[in-house]
Each structure stands twice: as C-alpha cells, then as structure tokens.
C-alpha cells in the first residue's frame, strides 16, 4: 500500500507540481487511484515492459493523429463533423483490460467511452465516418497482452 501511495503521489507531483492548489485535487486523486488499482486487481508485476512501450507509443500516435484531426476540423473554414455512437464488441473478458480500454479511448481526441456493459462498449465519436474499428481492436489487443 505504501508503494502504491509513493508511486501515484510521485506521478501526481510530476504532472501537477507541488503547490497547495494541486494538493487539493492531488490527495483525492491519489486516493482514488489506489482504490481502483486494488479493486481492479492490477499489479505492476503483470506488466510486460516491451508490450508497455509498444502500447505507450501506439497510444501516443493515435492521440497525435486524433488531435490533429480534431484541430483540422475545428480550425477549418467549414466545421466537418458527424457526431454519433458506435458499438464496439469487446473480445476480452477481463475487467481490468475492459476498463483500461474504455479509459484510454477517453484520452484519444474525438472519442468518448459512454457505457461499458458486459461485452459491449458504447463510444461517442466526433465523426462516425472516420471511425476505425481496427484502431480500437489494436489497442484492445495491446492492453490484453499488457495485462496477461
């Protein structure tokens, strides 16, 4: 437990800095991170380093592509969006993998995980025409390997 507190506190301090304002949000954030970490049964010994690096750079690439796409749409002369929902069938039956996929998709621009139920993830997209199921499938496969 002390290890988790140190780990998540360090991550928070790196991201937000050491100011009284950041601590107001940091203490509850670290507490929630430890709670979810333990509730989902995720332990660092289960993470494979090379797979983590592959996942990390894949996620960065998707985030960069998504961010540029959103910026192009918003800053363009004509706002080209077609918002809507898509249903993605999950292949993993592991709670931590499903939860992590939903949270990672929330961090990629233009997507929002709306509902996670049984083997289905409901996703809201800024543009349903630009939906690439193979990207989500790739992320899911990486997360499954990461946590296996």
Describe the structure.
- 61% of the residues lie in helices and 13% in strands.
- It is of the alpha+beta class.
- The chain folds into two domains: 2-40; 45-147, no CATH class.
- A three-stranded antiparallel sheet has the order 1-3-2, with helices on one face.
- Strand 2 and strand 3 (120-125) form a beta hairpin.
> Mind telling me the C-alpha Rg?
17 Å
| Whole-number mean pLDDT | 85
Shape: globular
Biggest β-sheet, characterized? 3 strands, antiparallel
- Topology pattern, helix = H, strand = E: HHHEHEEH
Helix content: 55-70%
Structural class: alpha+beta
Low-confidence stretches: none
* Percent of residues in beta strands: 5-15%
* Amino- and carboxy-terminal Cα gap: 22 Å
Q: How many helices?
A: 5
Care to give the gist of this entry?
The protein has five helices and three strands. The chain has helices spanning 2-16, 20-40, 49-75, 95-107, 133-147, and strands at residues 84-89, 111-117, 120-125. The longest helix is centred in the middle third of the chain and has 27 residues, at 49-75.
What characteristics describe this protein?
148 residues; alpha+beta; 3-stranded antiparallel β-sheet; 5 helices
Describe the SSE topology.
Layout lengths: L1 H15 L3 H21 L8 H27 L8 E6 L5 H13 L3 E7 L2 E6 L7 H15 L1
Antiparallel strand pairs: 1-3, 2-3
């Amino acid at each position: 437990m002390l290890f988790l507190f140190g780990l998540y506190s360090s991550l928070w301090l790196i991201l937000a800095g050491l100011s009284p304002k950041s601590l107001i949000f940091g203490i509850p954030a670290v507490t929630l991170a430890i709670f979810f970490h333990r509730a989902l049964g995720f332990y660092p010994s289960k993470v494979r380093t090379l797979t983590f690096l592959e996942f990390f750079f894949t996620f960065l690439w998707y985030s960069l592509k998504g961010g540029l796409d959103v910026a192009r749409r918003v800053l363009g002369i004509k706002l080209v969006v077609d918002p809507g929902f898509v249903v993605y069938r999950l292949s993993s039956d592991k709670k931590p993998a499903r939860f992590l996929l939903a949270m990672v998709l929330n961090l990629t621009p233009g997507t929002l995980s709306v509902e996670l139920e049984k083997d289905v993830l409901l996703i809201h997209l800024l543009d349903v025409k630009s939906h690439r199921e193979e990207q989500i499938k790739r992320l899911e496969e990486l997360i499954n390997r990461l946590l296996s």
